[in-house]
Amino acid sequence: MSQSLARALQILASLGEGDRSLDELAAELDVHKTTVLRLLRTMEADRFVRRDESYRYRLGSRLFALADAAREQHVVREVASPHLRQLNLKTGQTVHLAVWENGEAIYIDKLDSVQSVRMYSRVGVPAALHCTAVGKVLLAAQPLRQQETLMGMLDYHSYTRHTISGPEELRAELDVVRAQGWAADRAEHEAFINCIGAPVTDHDGRVVGAVSISVPDLLLNYDQVLELLPDLLATTKAISADYN
Amino acid sequence: MSQSLARALQILASLGEGDRSLDELAAELDVHKTTVLRLLRTMEADRFVRRDESYRYRLGSRLFALADAAREQHVVREVASPHLRQLNLKTGQTVHLAVWENGEAIYIDKLDSVQSVRMYSRVGVPAALHCTAVGKVLLAAQPLRQQETLMGMLDYHSYTRHTISGPEELRAELDVVRAQGWAADRAEHEAFINCIGAPVTDHDGRVVGAVSISVPDLLLNYDQVLELLPDLLATTKAISADYN
DNA sequence: GCTGAGATTGCAAAATACGCAACGCGCGTT
DNA sequence: AACGCGCGTTGCGTATTTTGCAATCTCAGC
C-alpha cells in the first residue's frame, strides 16, 4: 500500500540477516541507490538502522527498545519468565515459550541450554504447526473450524523422515494432544532433536501460550526426555496459576 | 527525508509505549486517519504491527525476530552473555551491558537482580553519559576530540543532587575513570542506587563495551558495592579475553 | 430496527519520492 | 605520485505515490 514504507521494511528484514552495503541493498530491492540511501537515512535518524565506520548498514538499537516493549505487552511472557528460568536451570535444556498470533505460533521467548547446542529457532519467528511441540499444542487449542481450515492450508514440509505429512495424520495427532494435555515432537522438525510441549491456560482454561523443552538426541533419548514431562507440566501449571 | 516512512517509524515508537487505536494514532501524529490506516496496513502485512480483535494496534512479532537478529549482530553481547549471567548469579545484583553507538551509550543487555527492584533502564535505550557508570566508561574511551564535542553538547540534566553538572567536573571525572580503569555512579542517576562499571576491550585494547553492576542503597551502601569491584573486573577481563 | 462511532474506499490534487547523471572522496594500482 | 575505480552523496525535473476529504460501510448498543 505504501511503497516507500514497504521497501523500508524490506530493508529491515534484509538487515536482519546480516549487515549490508548500500549497493547490496539496492540490488536486493531492485531500486536505485538513491532511494535506498534516503530510506536508510530516515531510519538512521530514528536509530532503527545504524552504520559502522566502513559504511555497512546494520539494525539499530531502537529495535531493541521496541522489542523489549513489545514483550512486556505480552502478559504471558512476563508471568512465565521466572518459571521458564527455573525450568531451564533445573533441566539444563533449551526452553521455548510460544503464543498464538494471527494464525501462527510465534516464539516469544527462548532460553538456551547450558550446552550451547544451536537450535534453529528464534524469538519472533513462527513455529511450524505440524511438527513442533508448541505448534501442535497451540493449534490443538484453536476453534475446530479454524483448525480444519489451517490443516487444509499447511504445506506439510517434510523436515525429517518423521515429519507428519498430511491433514489426516495431523488430525489424529491433535486428538492425542488434546487428550493427554501435552504434545511431543520426536525428531519431526530437526533430526536428532526431541521436544515436549504443554499449554499455559488462563483462569477460564483458555490456552494462552505453550512451553516446550528441546533436547538433542545425543544428550537424552526420547524416553529420557519424557522423564522431564513432570517438570514441564509443573511449570505450565505454575505459570497458569500466576496468570490469574 | 521520507515522510511516510518517518511517520511509520513514529507509529512504531508510539506503539512501543502501549497499544493504540487508529484514531489515537492519527491524533498523535496529527495526520488523517486514512493515512495512518494505510501505513498500518503495510506494516501489518509484514507482521511489524498486529491488531487484536477490538481493532487496537500493537507491535508485531516481526520486531522480536529483528531485535533478536540485531542482538546477535552485536558480537560483544554473544561473548559476554555467559559471563554476565555468572556475575548476576554470584552478586545477585542487576547487571548491564552497554556499547557505544553513534555518539550514545546504548544498553544492549540487562539481567535483573534477584530482588526484583525495578530500575529505570531498558535494553535499547541510551544511557546518560554524565551520570551512569557505563556512560562514563564508554565516553572516557572515545577519541578526545569527540569527548570534548560531546561534553559541550550534553544537557547535564540533574537527576539527583549528586549528578555531575558541567563539562569541567565531567572532564575531571573521566580522567579518574581512565586512570583507575573503572567508573562509579554514586546515586548520580537514580537516588539510592549506586553503580560501578568497567570496560570490555578487544585484542588491541580498544573499548568495545561496558559492564556495570547496580545496587539499591538499602541492600548495600557504596563501600559495600565497591567490594564487588573484583568480581566486576574479573568479569570484564574474562569477556575481553573471550573476545579474542 | 435505528443510531452512531469507528473503519474503510474512491477520487482528484499535489506533495513527495523517484531515478538520472554528475560530483566527491578515499583507496588500491600501476 | 598520478590515475582510476568503487562507492557514497547531491541537485533537479518528472510523475508516481501519497494524502486528505467526503461518502460509504460495518457493527454494536439501545
TrEMBL record, chains A, B:
InterPro entries: GAF-like_dom_sf (IPR029016), HTH_MetabolicPath_Reg (IPR050707), Tscrpt_reg_IclR_C (IPR014757), Tscrpt_reg_IclR_N (IPR005471), WH-like_DNA-bd_sf (IPR036388), WH_DNA-bd_sf (IPR036390)
Annotated ranges, domain HTH iclR-type: 2-61
Coiled-coil stretches noted in the UniProt entry, renumbered to this chain: none
GO biological process: negative regulation of DNA-templated transcription
Domain IclR-ED residues, every copy: 62-244
Record field: transmembrane: none
GO molecular function, one term: DNA-binding transcription factor activity
Position of the signal peptide: none
Alphabetical UniProt keywords: DNA-binding, Transcription, Transcription regulation
Highest taxon listed in the record's lineage: Bacteria
Name under which the protein is recorded: IclR family transcriptional regulator
Organism, as annotated: Kribbella antiqua
Taxonomic path: Bacteria, Bacillati, Actinomycetota, Actinomycetes, Propionibacteriales
